Structure formats: structure tokens, C-alpha cells
Amino acid sequence: MVYLTRKEHFNAAHRLHNSKWSDEKNREVFGKCNNENWHGHNFELYITVKGEPDPETGFVYNAKELSKIIKEKAVDRLDHKNLNLDVDFMQGIMPSTENLAKAIWQQLEPALEDCELHCVQIWETDRIYVEYYGT
Amino acid sequence: MVYLTRKEHFNAAHRLHNSKWSDEKNREVFGKCNNENWHGHNFELYITVKGEPDPETGFVYNAKELSKIIKEKAVDRLDHKNLNLDVDFMQGIMPSTENLAKAIWQQLEPALEDCELHCVQIWETDRIYVEYYGT
Amino acid sequence: MVYLTRKEHFNAAHRLHNSKWSDEKNREVFGKCNNENWHGHNFELYITVKGEPDPETGFVYNAKELSKIIKEKAVDRLDHKNLNLDVDFMQGIMPSTENLAKAIWQQLEPALEDCELHCVQIWETDRIYVEYYGT
Amino acid sequence: MVYLTRKEHFNAAHRLHNSKWSDEKNREVFGKCNNENWHGHNFELYITVKGEPDPETGFVYNAKELSKIIKEKAVDRLDHKNLNLDVDFMQGIMPSTENLAKAIWQQLEPALEDCELHCVQIWETDRIYVEYYGT
Amino acid sequence: MVYLTRKEHFNAAHRLHNSKWSDEKNREVFGKCNNENWHGHNFELYITVKGEPDPETGFVYNAKELSKIIKEKAVDRLDHKNLNLDVDFMQGIMPSTENLAKAIWQQLEPALEDCELHCVQIWETDRIYVEYYGT
Amino acid sequence: MVYLTRKEHFNAAHRLHNSKWSDEKNREVFGKCNNENWHGHNFELYITVKGEPDPETGFVYNAKELSKIIKEKAVDRLDHKNLNLDVDFMQGIMPSTENLAKAIWQQLEPALEDCELHCVQIWETDRIYVEYYGT
Q1: With an 8 Å Cβ cutoff, are B135 and E1 in contact?
Q2: Domain coverage including residue B24
Q3: Nearest to B59 by CA among B67, B51, B70
Q4: Residue F109 DSSP class
């Protein structure tokens, strides 16, 4: 079993806000991330798949194909978007990086053939990242 | 003359849009950066000052003081903000990274004592950065 | 289960020296790290916690809270310190990066509520890092 | 159990080409990596070993020794080489990064004493890396 | 005057060899870079242009346009190529990184409109880079 | 004229302390950097030389030779050392990074033949660096 990771990139705006809470509680919990006029990040996305290298190609997965799938299923729908308003698969979901990782897993997993999705890792800043392994 | 550079960080949302143009022309020129629901970045800010090292301290400038000034004059007013809506010193200015660098220079330059501001450098993504040297 | 990692930073001096050994053997085993006048590093510390994202916040843990705990329990006690002389929780312990990771685990683990500490990772240089998972 | 990782570096040329296939199919599958005049990469190699820190040294493994072994068994045989033509342990193996990771594992594993090889990780570019854990 | 830098990437193989010299002298001067079976690198290319930001866009140059020009004039002709054999504008030129920077300048400079090329910077490894400013 | 930069690395301990001042003033000015038990850094050193590429080699300077000179004149005398106590060319000099850059210039400049030293750049942490151009 070999693991192959491909890095992609997207920029997006978001706001952390729980509509069931008062403005005061939202500011207390989410701090500057609650700004009603949004803020944003350069998100770095690392997608890891696993499998046996194909004897004909030496590849777990063709990295160019993997990049295409990540772009089609995730990056093109997220890049230069507002995570709260513009992204269909984030509707009704608090756009924390944790929830974003789980949602990207659900977009990618059915699209990968002949290999297994292993991890969705997202760097929100160069000091914070999350990982989701599907369970 | 020695040059001292201090790196700081802020996240922000922005939108590139020229209100004198049609929506079509805005989309043509600014592409995805024209998204009306905003997008955002992790901006990396490098501030360079220059001067003779002080014989008593060996410092061109106390790096902790420099950090404080950059935070007070720039980062605290930009971090987790919307560059188009929330930042007083960007009012009426197209929030391109070029213009942001010039505006940050104007905020910082008068606040620095006993040394000279040399360069404002801003990385918008890890593939694009701008530099402004004051003229 | 989602994993959240927060990066923090500290600078410190240390010396690798086993007082049960001759000076010659110390130099042979530890090489330049045995310098009696100390040397130092910029240590990069990555703390990973795991848990289910809170349905109200979308967070495994509030990253700002996590940062505060790491600073209080580890970074503030290590930063700009001498690992052999100044750090209470390293007394009597050889200050290898391996042992430092285990000691930081013991400081952090009891302080984390509602989530589980998963990994302490420390980069000693940009070519050497260690990881400890608690067992 | 503590994990220790050491990073090393090598540059090499390679070509992905399956001699059982037509030139057309090779170009279709391998794209630009099929260039008959070769191309190359700066490969970053991360070797992770695991074990209990030695009570006398605090080390899982002496990092300088680990570096020596990686250089002798892998880097010196790969650096500034052609992976298809110059590397004895890659003869008859498609030089994908996946297969290279497995081959490096086989070179290193028998040479490590008193600790266990845990992972061979290779970055082919700063956007693609593979990992192999021995099974 | 504001400076805008755009980073691009290409992989290539090359060999340093002076045909006027003996094999022995080539090995002595160029060391491992003289390998007759080639070696290669991930080259990072930073192109800096300068100019006044356009009052309508806030741009020194549209970064997407700049990227297109760099790709058309340089990256597409270098990526996954052999610098000695495959690149028309390197014919008859020793493919040192220094000479490559000068040759890329000559390709890019005539293609840039309404702004001035300021610097071609190439990282050959993460420890060696060159810069060329046109004179 | 082409500029060639070579990166090297050293770890060292130091303490900022002006013996003409009271302990209180030292703590006030130098903060944690005044710790009497030392602290340390991973210093990254970038040395830039300039010149015309040699027509026979394409090199401004042989990068391997440059590395040897930097190691002999600077890195070997600084690595795993105490900048206040162990380094002959820093005796009597406040070991700020600014002063260290000037002192390294003085060590390197006379040792470089057939090219010109252009810049000594030192990163003290990944957020602070200094540059010295010889005047």
C-alpha cells in the first residue's frame, strides 16, 4: 500500500456565525471570525489516496487525473467564493475548516476509482490545519 | 546601513470591482476576483526598515517595537476585515495588493522614529507578491 | 473524528551531556551538541487534538483557546529559555527533542478538556523533527 | 514510542515509459513525463524511524548516524543520477515516485539497527508526495 | 512605482559539460552536474515587473495575464524538457542557471506591454538561486 | 551582471546584554533575549555574490566553491556555538543579528576571488531577517 498526496489551493471568504445565538455570544465565541463583512483565507488542500501501485504505470493514481478530480469536485466550486453563500455543498453547514474537510471528503470520495481516499487535510493559515480520515 | 525586516500576518476579504464599469467589463478584467460575495486571502506582510545599528543595542530598530507599530498601524486595522468596507485608510481606493502596499506605507512611515522605512512587501498568495519603496 | 493542529514557536538553548560519561565519550556521542557553552534552535511545535466537531461551532476545539493553553503550559515556559537550566518540567531529563516532546505531552494532556490530545510534533531544525502520540 | 524524522535531498532525472506500450499510449498516460530526453526533480526525502528513546542519550536514533545511513544507502546512489539508467536498485522498475519509495525502503530497512523504519516519504514537487510504510 | 512578482514552476533535466574540455576537466569543474545521463531540478521562477498601478484597476499588471505570458514564453518551453536538447532558446548556451535567467529575460522582455521587466529570479534548489536585472 | 545566492545554516546560542547598563535596563530593552542562561536560534544565512557569468562554465561562481568558503569562513565558526563566548570574530561585539551580518561580511569579503560579495542576509527566525550590503 502506497499513499499519494496532491496539494491544491483555493482562496475563499467566510464568516463564522451561529444564527441561534445572540450577536454578543457570537462575538465572544468566534471573535474576529464573526465579522459580518466577512474575512478570508488562502486555503491549502492536501488530498491523500492510497492503493497498490499499478504494475503498468507505477502509479497509485495518475497525479494529473487526481488533480483534475480535486479541481472539478472541490477547488472550482470553492475558489474565490464565499463559503457561506456561494457553495452548494456547504449550504446549512457552519463553514469551519473542520466541517469543510468533511464536506470535501463527501464530494471526492464517490469520484475516485480504483483507489481509496485516505485523508482530506486543509491548512486555513500556516499555523492551523485540520485532517479528516472519513470516520 | 543595515536592513531589518519583520514579517506579520493578516487575513482579509476583498473584491475587485470598478463601479464606473459594466458588470461584464468587471468580470472580464477582474475574473473571479470580481465575485460580489467577496473572497479572501492570508496576506503575509514584510516590513523593511534601514539604519545604522545603535552602538548600545546592536539594533537598527527593536524588532519587538517594530512589530508593535506594524500591528497598531496596519495589522490590527486589516486582520479579519473586509478591505472594501471595514478599513478606513482604504476608503475610495481599489483594494488591489499594489494599492494596499502604498496605503500601508502611508500609515507606517510617519510612525517610525530613528530609522527609515525601506519597503512594504505583501504576499497575496504564495505565488503573487508586490513591493513598494515609497516612490 | 476530525484532527486539528495548531503550530506554535519557541527559541531555546540546550546542551546534550550525560554526566555519567567522560568528556571524551560525550563529545563522541553528541558531537557539536555537547558544546559546554550551549547552542540553540528555533523550535516549531505542532499540537494535534482530535474529536467530533461541536454542532454549535463546527470546531473540534476553539483554535484560539488551544493556542492559549499551549502557550500557558508549554511555550511561555520554554521560549528564550535554557532547556537544561530554566525549565522546571525538564529538570533531570536529557533535553533531546524526543524527551522534550514527551515532557510537553505531560504538560498539555491534563489541560485539554472536551477533546483528546493526539500528537506532539517538534521540529528542531528544518531537517529533523520528532513526534510523540502518548504511548 | 517516539518517531524521529530526518530530511535529505537529491536531484535526479527520470522518464516514465512503458516499453510494452506504443509511443502514443505512453504519451497519453504519462504526458510530459514521457519526454524521451528526460526531465528531472529536486526530490525531498523524509525518513521516519521509531523506537523508545535511549535512557543514556534521549535519542531514538542518533540523527547524525541516521543521516549517514540515508546518504550511504540512498542519497549518494540517487543524487545527480538518472533513475532509469544509473541506479542499480531501480533496474527493471518503473521509476515512479511510488516505486522509488518502496525501493528506498528496501535499501534502508536492513541497515537500521536498534530502531524500526516507519515511513519513507518523498516529495517529487512541492505539490506531490508519496509515503510508504513497508506493507 | 510598484513591483509585482509572479512565481511559476517547471521541472527540467540538464547537464553541465564544456565540449572544449577533457572529460576529466569537466568532472573536476562540474562534479556531479556533469553526469552524462543527465540530472534534473524543480526550478522555481519568480518574474518581477514594475510600473505605476493603473488608476482603473489598481494593477501594475494583471497577474493572470502576466502568468499567461510567462507560461507561453518560458514555462511551456522548459517544463519537463531537457535544457541541453529540447529548448530552442538555449541552443549553444551552457545551461547554467545564470545563463538560463538571462535567456528567459530575452524571451519575456519583448512580450511585456505597459510595464517594465525588472528581475528574473530562478531557484535551482532550495539552497541556490540566481537573479538577473537585464544588464 | 548576474547575482548568485547560496543558503547555509547554523544553530547558535546568544544573549543580548549591555554590561554598561543595569540589569533592569537590560531586561527592559532586550526582554527575553537578555536571559542570563542564554537562548538560541536556527540561523539561515543567504550569501549573494555578483559578477559576469564565466563564458567557459556559465557560472558567476562555482556554487560548491562558494559553499566551501562560507562554511570555512563563517558557518564552521558559528555552528553549535555561543555567539558571545565561542566566536573569535564576535569578541567585544553585541551579538545582534545586525552586527553578526556585518561581521560575517568582513570574514567573507576578502576570501572571494573573481566575483564581488553583494549581500549577507540572516534569518534569525522565520519572522525576522537582516541584510547588509557592505556600506
Answers
A1: yes
A2: 2-132
A3: B51
A4: G
**Residues of chain F contacting residue B1, judged by C-beta atoms under 8 Å apart:** 133, 135
> By the 8 A CB rule, do B48 and B118 touch?
yes
* CA atoms of A63 and B39, how far apart (whole Å): 28
Contact (Cβ atoms closer than 8 angstroms) between residue D48 and residue D121: yes
Task: Output the nine-digit C-alpha cell for A86.
Answer: 456561494
* Residues of chain C falling short of pLDDT 70: none
Which of A14, A37, A83 should be substituted to probe chain B, the one whose Cβ sees the most B Cβ atoms within 10 Å? A37
Interface confidence (ipTM) of the complex: 0.96
Domain count along chain F: 1
Q: Which of A31, A102, A128 sits opposite C2 (nearest CB)?
A: A102
Cα–Cα distance, D24 to B49 (Å, whole number): 57
pLDDT band at E114 (very low <50, low <70, confident <90, very high): confident
d(CA C38, CA F35): 13
What count of other Cβ atoms lies within 10 Å of the Cβ of residue A133?
16
Cβ neighbours of C39 in F, within 8 Å: 11-13, 40, 79-82
Alpha-carbon gap, residue B106 to B103, rounded angstroms: 5
- For chain E, count helices (H), then strands (E): 4, 5
Q: Where are the alpha helices (DSSP H) in C8-74?
A: 23-30, 63-70
CATH number of the domain residue A114 falls in: 3.30.479.10
CA E104 – CA E100 distance, rounded (Å): 6
Cut 0.95: pTM above it: yes
- A contact residues 2-41, partner C, Cβ 8 Å cutoff: 16, 18, 20-21, 29-31
Shortest distance, CA B57 to any CA of chain F (angstroms): 7
Q: Which residues contact D88 (CB under 8 A, 6 or more apart)?
A: D77
Residue A50 C-alpha, separation from nearest chain D C-alpha, in angstroms: 9
Considering only alpha carbons, which residue of chain A is nearest residue C7? Answer: A127
The one catalytic residue among C33, C41, C98, C116: C33
F130/B64 touch (CB, cutoff 8 Å), yes or no: no
Which spans in chain A are helix H? Answer: 23-30, 63-70, 76-78, 97-108
Using the Cβ of A53 and the Cβ atoms of chain D, whether some distance falls under 8 Å is answered with yes
Question: How does pLDDT run across B20-70, given as a tens digit for each residue?
Answer: 999 999 999 999 999 999 999 999 999 999 999 999 999 999 999 999 999
